[in-house]
Amino acid sequence: MIRVATIALLVLAAAAFAEEPPERVDPADYPDEAAVILRWEQTFTLDRDGAIRRRDHRWTQILSRRAIRGLADPRIDFREGEDEVIVHAARTHLPDGSVLPVPDYSFNIAAPNDVAGWPEWAAWRQRIVSFSGLRPGTVIEFDQEVKTKAGVLPWISAEIRLDADLPVLRHEVVLLAPRGTFVNLTEGHGLVVTSADGTGSDVYRWTAKNLPAARGEPQSPPWRERCPTVAFTTCGDHPDWVRAFTNPVDAAAQADDAIRTFAKKAVKDVEEDEERIDAVIRRLRDTTHLVGSWKTWRSHACRSAAVVFRSAYGSPLEHAAVATAALRSLGYDVGLAVGTERMERWHGLITPVDAAFASIILLVNASGGEILVHPRDGVFRRDHGFGGHTLLQVGPDAPVKVGRIWPLAGRGEGVVSDLAIEGKLSMDGEGRLSGDLTLRLGPLFFDPDGLKTANAQKSICEKFIRRLVPGLDVKSFAVTSFSADALTIVVSVAGKKPIPDVDGLRLIELGSRPMFLSDVPIPLGPRARRTSVALKGAFRESVDLRIEVPAKATIPGIPDSRPEVAGDWGRIVQTVETGDRTVRIRRIVEIVRDRLAPPEMVRLRAVVNGLGASASTVIVVSLE
Amino acid sequence: MTRSRLALVLAVLLFAVAPGLAGPPRPTSDEEIAKLIAAAGDAKKHGKVPHVVVLDESDVFVESTGLATTHRTRVVKILNDAGARSNAVLREGFDPNTNRVAIDRVRIHRKDGATEDVDVSQVITTPSRQGLIFWGGRQHLLSLPRVEIGDAIEIHTRRIGFNIAYLSEGRSLAPLSGEGLEPPMPGHWYEVTRFEARQPILRQRYSVHVPKSMPLQFEVYNGPLRSSLWFDGDRHVYTFSAENTPAVSLEPSMASWDDCVTKVVMATVKDWPTKSRWFHGVNEPMFEADHDIRMKVKEITNGLDDEEAKIAACLHWVSDNIRYYGTSRGPGEGYTLHPGIETFRDRGGVCKDMAGMLITMLRVIDVEAYPALTMAGPRVEAIPADQFNHTVCVVRNADGSFRVLDPTWSPLSRELWSSREAEQGLVYGTPEGQGLTRSPFFAPEHNAIRVKSTVELDHDGDLRARLTYDLSGYACTYFRRNLNRHAPARRVEVIAGQLNIAPNAILSGAKHTDPTDYSRDSHAELAVTALEYTTAGNDVRLFKLPLMSHPMGKWLMGDLLSPPGGKDRRYPLRLRATRLIEYEETVTLPPGWRIAKRPKDREVESGSVDLAFAAEVEASVLKYTFTLTAKKHLVPAADVAGLRKAIETMKAIASEWVVARREVK
Description:
The structure holds 2 protein chains of 2 kinds.
Chain A: H1 2-16, E1 35-46, E2 52-62, H2 68-71, E3 75-79, E4 83-93, E5 99-101, E6 107-110, E7 124-129, E8 139-148, E9 157-161, E10 168-178, E11 184-185, E12 192-194, E13 201-211, H3 223-226, E14 229-233, H4 238-252, H5 257-266, H6 273-287, E15 289-290, H7 305-311, E16 313-314, H8 316-329, E17 333-340, E18 357-366, E19 369-374, E20 378-379, E21 389-393, E22 404-408, E23 416-427, E24 433-441, H9 454-468, E25 472-482, E26 487-495, E27 505-509, E28 533-534, E29 538-548, E30 554-557, E31 562-567, E32 570-579, E33 582-591, E34 595-596, H10 598-611, H11 614-617, E35 618-622
Parallel strand pairs in A: 1-10, 15-16, 23-29
Antiparallel strand pairs in A: 1-2, 2-8, 3-7, 4-5, 4-8, 6-7, 9-14, 10-13, 11-14, 12-13, 17-18, 17-21, 18-19, 19-20, 21-22, 23-24, 24-26, 25-26, 27-35, 28-34, 29-33, 30-35, 31-32, 32-33
Chain B: H1 3-17, H2 30-39, H3 43-46, E1 51-62, E2 68-78, H4 81-86, E3 89-94, E4 99-109, E5 115-118, E6 124-127, E7 133-134, E8 138-143, E9 152-161, E10 190-194, E11 201-211, E12 217-221, E13 226-232, E14 235-245, H5 257-260, E15 263-267, H6 272-283, H7 291-301, H8 307-321, E16 323-324, E17 326-327, H9 340-346, E18 348-349, H10 351-364, E19 369-374, E20 390-396, E21 402-405, E22 425-428, E23 437-438, E24 448-457, E25 463-471, H11 473-484, H12 491-496, E26 506-512, E27 522-530, E28 540-543, H13 553-557, E29 573-574, E30 579-588, E31 593-597, E32 602-604, E33 609-618, E34 621-630, E35 634-635, H14 640-655, E36 658-662
Parallel strand pairs in B: 1-11, 7-17, 16-18, 24-30
Antiparallel strand pairs in B: 1-2, 2-9, 3-8, 4-5, 4-9, 6-8, 10-15, 11-14, 12-15, 13-14, 19-20, 19-22, 20-21, 22-23, 24-25, 25-27, 26-27, 28-36, 29-35, 30-34, 31-36, 32-33, 33-34
Helix pairs in contact in B: 1-2, 8-10, 9-10
């Protein structure tokens, strides 16, 4: 209650000097927008003693009630004892020019969702500020600052998106650092560097104006890839950054009896190194909670492995510490590296910003060589969702500037994955289909680890065969080739029952969606598209299906051929040929990139949706 | 050991560990707890649940003020890894304005019989997470030592609060202060206690120690419980207990939890009118209007002559302009309404404050309005215990009858009382006091989806359709809400995404009513094109009935589009509202073609849903009508099969091919 009162006083004091809001916009100029950010000032300050201040001052004009829910109750996360929150101004400028400050009872405290309920991070708080009087025509002014005590963070680092889901008329980002501080930063975006201000700081100022709204759409690339962003860090070079994460983990990774017993039990009767490592990681994952929020590792703190193991919950760093301790207790030599987000997220910096941290990666020296291990997901056989990530390692004896950087490829990344079905189906005199089909799959379409049993192999056959011709059962199958990146299966299929008679006709219905869609989704709903589309990977779906009908049967309806549509992105074509008692359908949907430009997507959508029309998918057979 | 010997041993064991169930209630001893844990069994016995509740035992000591203290002992046994993970931290949430909680003792019983006491001085108290209601909820957190499968956790807590206030005698526990806690209705206590959970409960006892001067009325709902009343000095001790209660398996679209599980409802309040008068009394000072409110009322009722229109105008204004968020005014928050003047200035509040705002505005135009308590979802049982989670507004009509209004559920709706709130329990807060009543039932016709479709198929098999929608009640509301999420310029595109008729269907034109125009029900006209809608072929073409693909169905009848799962239904099923779906579609073939086969007529009648489909063919024209009537929003378990049959029939019609043949000349 005291804190609430203090904040209220600050707000009231600030209200006495209330600044006029920037000039309002005419809503008619923004018919598609619910609000506009009139001015946005973000100031980051590294004090000479190492304290860090982040101030955010924003004026947002509400144009439509649709905007209110998203703007009304901003939340500021902070850690009690490390951070101080100062609300310089929180008020609503009403349409008549009067100002409505946020009342005392509208400053509230909660626990942030991502760490709520975990004792180790119980000091994290969320200040919620609920604005009053919101309606179209009002301007929300919110000016808040979080000050982090000296010694909590080793450097100042940030990654700031310049545009927003709303139009931004003016956005200014300022970094103040003590004169002469090394700053690694993003060039451009109106950057102006002033050697010093009155406080003896170097001032870096980025300014952007009239930025249109940049809301994401289904399958838009991440904002880091598509939005103007500036980033900076005062961390010297990537080995320093890597060590800030790996050193605490390394120090914490001491096994006690409980961990040793746990590890030994986990690998009982398991011989192979990879399997032993996976067994330990799997048991750890099954019995220990991961609290993945950045709040758990902001200051690179890591409890000892023994304490974490006993508490049965931990941060990503702490999970790595327990995993390392457990593996070392089994005699493995374990080194540590850091996996970072995609390279473009560094925004041209030599050193990643802290937000680029993705995971500690364990480098296990085993008899067959080095094995990369994710502390939660186990041995890196596939991407673990880590496609495009970068691994940074600093050797124990390496000089500070020498590290090891290499990319982790995602499954299906950099190759065109096949999804092919070819073969023949025959219809008997009662309308039942049967035949042999060959299924070929590339890396996007199967997971070798998930195909160790005959049931799993049968399931994947059924999955794809039924996407092509719903209602078929797999009678038998033979895996003819199987590697990490390619799978070929010959499948004998038969209809569950004869195709029903519809007024003397039998309809062979192909799936109304191409087979790839469940594995590589594409946003086929909306007609309009503003942003690029991100796909899981490049692929080539190919169907070559011959259907033979009984001797006396006729084929009064066959699917239409579709002329080839091609572009830099790939091609789509369907050809249908009829012969004596046969129909041959060949279809290729090939997309050779994992990004599609908006006009390409619009074209692709129309063609792919056309492939689903009845005229493209149904074969009509008359047995009479 | 033979099976009969094993049974004998188990019987003896159960008898030995169940003394608490005979005679006056008493806490289960440490020795008994150890035996209960040993007898509780493992995952083989209990299946996939993460843990089993071995013991859940509460003694509630009620003071004459209405405050009470609950001493609770809870023992859970870990059955699998998920159980071990989910019990890493003990969490006890509370609202400091109404409750205080102490964790008195926590003991880990290891699988091998060893015990380990957890240092409860390590409890950390933090704010809890909060969604849109910021009432200062807090929680105690205690990190537990890693538990393994077969271990058990014994937890002893005390909770003092509105419904509980007894500082126990003769027990060496840290004092738990009830200072600052005052029950909403001084001198009264109430509680609703459930006896079923997502995990099996092997033994549960709930005892209420109440002064003899406070008569307690109770009733058990949804199943049997063992009960007793014992005299204990100047107290009556009411005890409810159950043993070996299986876990509740959730069913799709299941009715509210409280309508399904065994529970006991208890209250010392004499009757509902008493509660009604109390609610009126505590809130009556909140409805004063100031100049600004009076001016706003004048503005929004300007030009409206009749009272009905003025009431609707006030309700729509509150619904659309008072945003939902909760701030606390300290003690009394939760059951006292905020002053209308504050809600108006803030343009925000929770349901009770929105109701208060409406009452304040209605009183400006001399409408006799009061707050009312209701329960959104579950039944309100007849025992006058507080079972409410929602506050609304009630208006006394000229003839003395009442009508209810709900501004919280009415944003972007013509409904002054939501069709999703049918047959809810209500207690009006009036000066003279009212009994428990129910909100109106909404007949399916109230929530109508009426669609007329005219379809033309050309020689290429291309489809051109005009669809006209007339929507009322629930369907009207959800059409408005789905559109209003988007800027006006985007709304046609949003409708286009809901067509369903064919993957390549295009919305070539659309007109619709304004989502914020409350003067009329929602109406939409859509022009749809789908190239190559029929199968290809020279002399025969096949197609499916376009309207049976339910364009915009996800918005208007999403809860009716898939048959409910679960064959052996145990619990009722809740639809979002009753519904009447009436389709009329005419499909015209190009000249020279005739309909050779059409879907057969069908009828389904059941207790919950009726369906009728009838088609007729005249040469190249197929006409049909389809009617689905969801007659109940709460479908009894026995009627779910009827609902399922109707929905499956609807899907069968939609998937059936219509055959068109070229006429032979």
